[in-house]
Write a sequence for this structure.
């Protein structure tokens, strides 16, 4: 059941935008309802005992801070959209609690069941890419990938699960999964996914493995490109700063809008979810061309990537938060790298998953993002809750299931070693 709900978390919000929802936030509402139901059922069966750790800090400090900052921005900015602020703030509260319920449910799962749930989602996402390669287009959308209307949405969802699979797999499986990710990104023409796959290879492989995989990927790619199965020109165009296309200009305007909003608000920011409503006009020549072709409103409310939106809305405070993220990002990458190199049989797979969600959110933050309330944003919020919980609360009470792949009893091992020595 948890695996199916986790799958719904990943696929329902983007799929809902194809059929009825104006945004992914609307598609998240039924998923959050599922988490509330499962959490209530879990409490009824096993009791409501949970150690909240730093979740209380998020609820009692961060949420009031967002509210206070929004009120301050309301008095400063005449174009402040109060209706959008209230709707987003109320949804933020539900969003935080929904992510917490996911973590509480995972706490109660034996590790091998949590591992099964993550792998279920991963293989379904692989099937989505396979269906697209075979020519299937959902509702006829030319850029759709299974449940996802755009390949960038697919990339946000796949990358945390791909990192999890690579970290906990054997050497051959690591290379297979990474090669599949590389091949999918090239066939789908997804620069976002390609950047993420390259990052995962760097995070999870040793230098020797990385060199071997790179040589293999290049050797296989050359004949595929020669036969026109892969449009290499697409990727080169995305990186051509001398003649930027819409995607690149959208990325650059994200940084420009962040800078202008930060400067014009004297470091305070324009307020939560006010990006696009409170804004400054560009004075850079390249963006005059951007506006002249009718693309002025492209990514107007999400900033192309989340860091630009955060800096615009929360100013200096967002810069501090992003620096803190990068510090913990480096620590998490080091830990995942050690687990991947040394073997993941003795670690908690749930910790690997949530740290994978935390680490791969850097794609949404700095490369390409769709706003706060997305599937990847929800998993990132859950990762923050997991990180803030006390370590002892992460072992399900009464879990006597034998799981030789992930359980590692240090006290029992020490006793056996001492007996053998005697």
């Amino acid at each position: 059941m948890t695996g199916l709900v986790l799958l719904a978390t990943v696929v329902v919000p983007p799929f809902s935008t194809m059929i009825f929802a104006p945004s992914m936030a609307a598609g998240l509402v039924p998923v959050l309802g599922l988490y509330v139901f499962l959490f209530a059922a879990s409490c009824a069966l096993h009791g409501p005992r949970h150690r909240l750790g730093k979740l209380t800090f998020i609820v009692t400090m961060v949420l009031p801070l967002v509210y206070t900052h929004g009120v301050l921005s309301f008095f400063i900015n005449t174009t402040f959209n109060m209706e959008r602020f209230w709707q987003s703030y109320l949804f933020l509260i539900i969003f935080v609690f929904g992510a917490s319920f996911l973590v509480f449910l995972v706490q109660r799962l034996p590790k091998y069941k949590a591992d099964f749930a993550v792998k279920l989602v991963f293989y379904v996402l692989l099937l989505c890419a396979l269906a697209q390669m075979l020519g299937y287009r959902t509702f006829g959308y030319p850029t759709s990938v299974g449940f996802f209307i755009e390949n960038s949405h697919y990339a946000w969802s796949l990358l945390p699960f791909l990192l999890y699979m690579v970290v906990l797999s054997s050497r051959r499986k690591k290379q297979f999964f990474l090669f599949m990710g590389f091949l999918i990104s090239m066939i789908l023409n997804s620069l976002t996914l390609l950047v993420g796959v390259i990052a995962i290879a760097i995070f999870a492989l040793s230098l020797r493995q990385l060199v071997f995989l790179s040589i293999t990927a290049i050797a296989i790619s050359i004949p595929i490109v020669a036969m026109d199965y892969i449009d290499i020109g697409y990727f080169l165009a995305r990186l051509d700063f001398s003649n930027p296309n819409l995607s690149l200009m959208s990325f650059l305007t994200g940084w420009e809008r962040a800078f202008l909003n930060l400067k014009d608000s004297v470091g305070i920011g324009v307020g939560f979810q006010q990006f696009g409503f409170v804004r400054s006009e560009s004075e850079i020549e390249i963006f005059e061309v951007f506006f002249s072709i009718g693309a002025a409103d492209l990514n107007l409310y999400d900033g192309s990537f989340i860091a630009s939106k955060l800096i615009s809305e929360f100013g200096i405070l967002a810069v501090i938060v992003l620096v803190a993220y990068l510090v913990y990002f480096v620590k998490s990458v080091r830990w995942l790298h050690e687990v991947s190199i040394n073997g993941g049989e003795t670690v908690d797979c749930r910790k690997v998953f949530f740290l994978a969600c935390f680490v791969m959110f850097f794609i949404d933050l700095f490369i390409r993002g769709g706003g706060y309330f997305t599937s990847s944003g929800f998993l990132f919020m859950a990762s923050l809750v997991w990180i803030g919980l006390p370590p002892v609360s992460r072992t399900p009470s009464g879990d006597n299931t034998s799981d030789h792949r992930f359980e590692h009893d240090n006290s029992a091992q020490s006793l056996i070693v001492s007996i053998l020595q005697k």
Q: What stands out?
A: Confidence is low (pLDDT under 50) at residues 392-413. The CA atoms of residues 204 and 337 lie 5 Å apart. The two ends are 48 Å apart (CA to CA). Residues 82-108 form the longest helix (27 residues).
